[in-house]
């Protein structure tokens, strides 16, 4: 198996502006190519697009817009974790030898129709993520005595961290009290507990070991991959834990030969504040009953180890771009390029993304 | 690199009935699993869906419906060639070692909204494939003195061959005269020159060499892969030839170490009758100026070498299922399981699929 590295990154600002998905793909791809040493577009032999947008043939459209004539191009969709799925697919193409250099670009428009699944409707399932977000929150509070303040800390921390991310949707700091007093959406969720749909694009360039050395002075290696789909819909099982994350983490740690204690920095999927607490537990960084305390300690000591770019709550959640933006953050952290967000001496990082109440998860371990 | 084999196949009938994409995915997947020796669903670690349908999270929905909890699942879209892209993606996952056994399932509903690209509209491009089909036909007639009768033979041949395909959309033989007298759509195209959108599902199971030996007595090996995207929209370049097919074929032949003369049977993308003539030329099976004559000879001698299942014109064109159905046909031919459609002593086969006026192509060489 060929080793695979990330050699370039580029993003657009995440915003509530109406976004054109083709333009967002192009803009972030262009920024990504600019970040690479002398990248000859003729050598890019894969272009993968990640989006939930209904437009078709975007892989070819982005390729033509960029002046790339790749071997492989197509679009990938898996709701919130489309982006990490596309990055892992690029890894597979390069590792298998079918491709040498792959551009992965994700984008979403804030005006994209909501992700209501006809299949859920037909089964009488919840039509909106807010309901499972609320049930997960209620369950966590009951089972682990998690307080409303601890949940609010997740949001306050991530809003604060997003202040140093120039691409973030949010540019307002939010105090714990502001979160706790924000508009109530359900019994257990307030508006500031929720990530926001928005427009945004994010792109990375991946390469085989041989090509990576010429394209980047600081290639970042994908050393661990884990993925798991346990179901498609909210089930009782989900309330207890996020099994897909635990199983995916096991695979990723095994492949990379690291343990959770080795992780210096992680981007985790905080679609709702409770998700960050659950994710860091399933990843083995803490445990569910200590997760509130863990996050409080991070907040009080200004330790940005979890979600340094502001997570989904602070940075915004343009579905197709999210997983790629998470991967960019960890890449830049391991390259020491994260300016005021920089974690000191970060050598090993983790990306965690998931979809639909944690019914599926994708995890990558990155190392410099 | 791990070798990759096709170890199971399953389809639904292609029809004009309104199809539910989730049901079509399930039905063909179920038929596929039934075709495999003692397949333990717990061992399937990838589920890839190919479709142009706007429903989301179908990889997880199909997995839950089937009782599979894979590592990898997502949807892949690349217009007409979504299916071959998904098969090649599965190849990459297995070859890279990220996965051992992958189910690839494609489906389309006849009620799916048409594939009009907003991007084409914004550029003043043709909104419907019929226009580029017509221009390709006009160009071929002018450049290679191709006659209307030769074009009609493609359709008559494929309709005839579809009569022996129980899953085909068409169940009517069509004479050359019937094709030539069918309803005129443009100056250069009649209705029977065109493939039909329809409902249908097709699934295959792929496995690593180690797993393939236990799952099938007749694994069929993917020995060559070639892909190319030259642009996204119809360009002058396209009128001259289908460059993406020629370049993809070069890669596939090189990887598999075969030449075009070694091909015993091929499924090629005949969205319009002229496409079959162009495809067999770009694949090196004949040349453009002799392609009409070549197809006439096949028709007169009842040689089913090209499009034995009836091609897109005879079998129907449910976009997401097409490439997978083509792959199934070649697999079954190489296994000697094609009943009345069987090519004798078929050992090497080829699958050719393309999208949007041949702006991208995917090719696979299969061997038994």
Which descriptors apply to this entry?
homodimer; globular; alpha/beta; 2 domains; Peroxisomal Thiolase, Chain A, domain 1; 11 strands; 368 residues; two-stranded antiparallel sheet; 9-stranded mixed β-sheet
Describe this structure in words.
Two copies of one chain form a homodimer. By secondary structure, chain A is α/β, with parallel strands linked by helices. Chain A has two domains: 4-113 and 198-220, Thiolase/Chalcone synthase (Peroxisomal Thiolase, Chain A, domain 1), CATH 3.40.47.10; 125-196 and 222-367, Peroxisomal Thiolase, Chain A, domain 1. Chain A is 40% helix and 19% strand. In chain A, a hairpin with a 4-residue loop joins strand 10 (348-355) and strand 11. The two termini of chain A are 19 Å apart. In chain A, 63% of the residues are buried. Chains A and B meet through helix 2, strand 3, helix 3 and strand 8 of A and helix 2, strand 3, helix 3 and strand 6 of B. Strand 3 (72-77) of chain A pairs antiparallel with strand 3 of chain B, so a sheet runs across the interface.
């Amino acid at each position: 198996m060929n080793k695979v590295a990330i050699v370039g990154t580029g993003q657009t600002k995440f915003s509530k502006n109406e976004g054109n998905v083709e333009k967002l793909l192009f803009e972030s791809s262009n920024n990504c190519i600019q970040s690479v040493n002398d990248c000859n577009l003729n050598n890019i032999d894969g272009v993968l697009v990640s989006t939930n947008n209904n437009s078709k043939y975007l892989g070819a459209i982005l390729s033509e817009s960029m002046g790339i004539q790749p071997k492989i191009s197509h679009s990938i969709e898996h709701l919130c974790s489309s982006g990490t799925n596309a990055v892992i697919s690029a890894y597979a193409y390069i590792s298998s030898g079918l491709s040498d250099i792959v551009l992965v670009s994700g984008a979403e428009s804030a005006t994209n129709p909501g992700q209501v699944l006809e299949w859920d409707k037909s089964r009488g399932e919840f039509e909106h993520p807010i309901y499972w977000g609320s049930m997960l929150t209620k369950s966590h509070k009951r089972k682990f005595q998690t307080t409303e303040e601890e949940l609010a800390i997740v949001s306050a921390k991530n809003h604060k961290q997003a202040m140093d991310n120039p691409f973030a949707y949010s540019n307002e700091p939010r105090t714990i009290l502001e979160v706790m007093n924000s508009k109530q959406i359900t019994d257990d969720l307030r508006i500031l507990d929720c990530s926001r749909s928005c427009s945004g694009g994010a792109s990375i360039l991946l390469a085989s070991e041989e090509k990576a050395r010429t394209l980047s002075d600081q290639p970042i290696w994908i050393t661990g991959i884990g993925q798991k789909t346990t179901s498609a819909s909210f089930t009782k099982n989900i309330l207890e834990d996020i099994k897909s994350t635990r199983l995916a983490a096991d695979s990723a740690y095994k492949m990379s030969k690291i343990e959770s204690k080795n992780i210096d920095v992680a981007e985790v999927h905080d679609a709702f504040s409770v998700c960050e607490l659950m994710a860091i537990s399933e990843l083995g960084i803490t445990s569910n009953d200590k997760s509130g305390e863990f996050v409080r300690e991070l907040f009080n000591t200004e330790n940005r180890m979890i979600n340094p770019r502001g997570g989904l709550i602070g940075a915004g959640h343009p579905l197709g771009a999210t997983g790629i933006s998470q991967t960019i953050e960890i890449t830049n952290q391991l390259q020491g390029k994260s300016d005021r967000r920089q974690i000191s001496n970060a050598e090993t990082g983790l990306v965690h993304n998931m979809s639909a109440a944690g019914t599926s998860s994708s995890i990558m371990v990155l190392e410099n």
